[in-house]
Write a structure and sequence with these properties.
By secondary structure, the chain is α+β, with helices and mostly antiparallel strands. The chain has four helices and six strands, in the order H-E-E-H-E-E-E-H-H-E. It is globular.
Length: 119
């Protein structure tokens, strides 16, 4: 994915999360790590399964509308505890807050460059 396109997609994702009041938004740059399957993770959480689903739906809608891109794969919508949206080089993780604490992806991918985004 071209860098300019990737930057636009990341900005649209972050804005979509902020619109639905997603919390503790983190961007992890994995480009300097060898053998990773993606370039970036974007992680956030909501405080209910309803909010988690709303955040994920907003990301899907905005990326289709603004960037003309659909997710390659989506997982977790049924339970809305951890929804994963796969946008090729960018994977978005939208967690229900207690589930985020259990998996703690930020510590698992601490080798990446972690950037905290103001909500």
């Amino acid at each position: 994915m071209k860098e300019a396109q990737s930057t636009n997609i990341i900005a649209a994702i972050i804005h979509s999360i902020q619109e639905k009041k997603g919390e503790e938004i983190v961007e992890i740059d994995l480009t300097k790590i060898e053998n990773t399957i993606v370039e970036r993770f974007i992680i956030c959480h909501g405080n209910s399964s309803t909010q988690v689903e709303a955040i994920a739906n907003n990301i899907e809608d905005k990326l289709l509308e603004q960037c003309h891109i659909k997710a390659k794969h989506i997982e977790g919508k049924r339970n809305a505890q951890w929804i994963l949206l796969d946008y090729y080089d960018i994977i978005v993780h939208v967690f229900y807050e207690p589930i985020r604490r259990v998996y703690n992806l930020e510590s698992l991918w601490a080798d990446g460059e972690i950037k905290h985004i103001n909500s």
